[in-house]
Amino acid sequence: MTTRVPFQQVDVFTAVPFKGNPVAVVLEGGALSSTQMQTIARWTNLSETTFVCPPTDPAADYRLRIFTPLAEIPFAGHPTIGSAHALLRHGLVPRHAGRLVQECGKGLVDLSLDGDRLFLALPTPTFTSPETSQRAEAASALGVSAAEIERAAIVDVGPVWFTVQLRDGATVAKLQPDMAAIIALSRDPVTGLNVFGFYAGGGPADLEVRSFAPAHGVPEDPVCGSGNGCVAALIQRDRLLERASYVSSQGRCLQRDGRVEVRFAADGRIWLGGHAVTCVEGTLGL
């Protein structure tokens, strides 16, 4: 007998269908095995597919398992936003007004509802300084000189991104990286190479971000929440902005044109989020 489970495909960090970054959300997925989940994630072939399960922590509204086409990961940004959007559309009533708590491999993640936008509280980041040889590898993979890398750090927010600042957003947008070199750079636990640069003014946003994870089956993530979180953590740590919020652009190189809003709270937490829109809704037959 075929079992039907509710399913949505949600575009995240955009209010426009078919832009932003899609995530496949399997609602009521708690009865599926890990093997079934990985098979479905490989089939959707999106950067992430999520499965909503009953929580094991009484503080959580739900538990989320997150899969790339190749493996399960503990946390990711756009799947967190997209899954929360899908759950609310599916009829989930938050236990606390204006707030959701997600349980995932990284622990508990707070989300806030701000009108038609959703924001997540970034898991506490940890930083590792890359070695000189790693900076040189990153520069070579990006097709720039080592001197053009203004700042670099390996930042862990669940996914671990080798995060690099280049001189400006236009330089980031023009990159044509060497994917084989990025795979070689992505030695465990590094997910991939994450690049950003500021716009001086008149650009599409305050900064441009691009996130490359070919070792995980995602050559370029259209709009990456965890990648943007690592950028925000580096901006906060090094005090690169004086104001308490900014907007980043990501995905224009893939005609996806996403926007990620970042807020620095007085308590030190980083909140990031934006809009989401459901483009596909139905059931999967299993």
Protein described:
Helix content is 22%, strand content 38%. The protein is of the alpha+beta class. The chain has an 18-stranded mixed beta sheet that branches. A hairpin with an 8-residue loop joins strand 3 and strand 4. The model has no long low-confidence stretch (mean pLDDT 96).
Our Rg estimate from Cα atoms comes to 18 Å
> Helical proportion?
10-25%
* Share of residues in strands: 35-45%
Mean pLDDT over all positions: 96
Number of strands: 18
**Structural class label:** alpha+beta
- Helix-strand string: EEHEEEHEEEEHEEHHEEEHEEEE
Main sheet characteristics = 18 strands, mixed
- Low-pLDDT parts are none
Q: What's the layout of helices and strands?
A:
Blueprint: E1 4-12, E2 21-26, H1 34-44, E3 49-53, E4 62-67, E5 72-73, H2 77-90, E6 99-104, E7 107-114, E8 117-121, E9 126-128, H3 132-142, E10 151-156, E11 160-165, H4 169-173, H5 179-185, E12 192-198, E13 207-213, E14 218-221, H6 225-238, E15 245-250, E16 258-264, E17 270-274, E18 276-285
Helix pairs in contact: 3-5
Short description, anyone?
With 286 residues, the protein is an alpha+beta fold. The protein has helices at residues 34-44, 77-90, 132-142, 169-173, 179-185, 225-238, and strands spanning 4-12, 21-26, 49-53, 62-67, 72-73, 99-104, 107-114, 117-121, 126-128, 151-156, 160-165, 192-198, 207-213, 218-221, 245-250, 258-264, 270-274, 276-285.
Distinctive features:
18-stranded mixed beta sheet; alpha+beta; 18 strands; 286 residues; 22% helix
